[in-house]
Amino acid sequence: MDQRNIQQEFQDQFNDVVSRLQSKQMFQSDWDIASFAIFFIFIGVVLTLVLLVLIRCCCCCCGCCDDEKVRTLRLKSTAVMSLV
Asked: Rounded distance, CA 16 to CA 4, Å?
């Protein structure tokens, strides 16, 4: 009996989506619009973070960020700061 309830609920939701598509009114309430906006903001943030990670990985892999140069600059800057 529980399986029939799940099937009926799924069918009702499917029919609701189909009826919204047919009426060309996907957003029938303010909550629909807000949830849609929040979803796309979330997807945008995730894609931005993935892009930043890829940029960081490519920068480290290409060899343009030499670790010895960075360490030397850090040592020089800390030595200058300790003199001041």
From this structure: 18
Q: What's the per-residue H, E or C state across 34-48?
A: HHHHHHHHHHHHHHH
Buried b (16+ CB within 10 A) or exposed e, 5-37: eeeeeeeeeeeeeeeeeeeeeeeeeeeeeeeee
Expressed as residue numbers, the domain containing 14 is 2-83
Q: In this structure, what token pair is assigned to residue 77?
A: 């800057």
Q: What number is the average pLDDT over the span 80-84?
A: 59
pLDDT tens-digit map of 23-64: 777 677 788 788 889 999 999 999 999 999 998 888 766 655
Number of domains forming the structure of the chain = 1
Phi, psi angles (nearest 5°) of residue 29: -145, 170
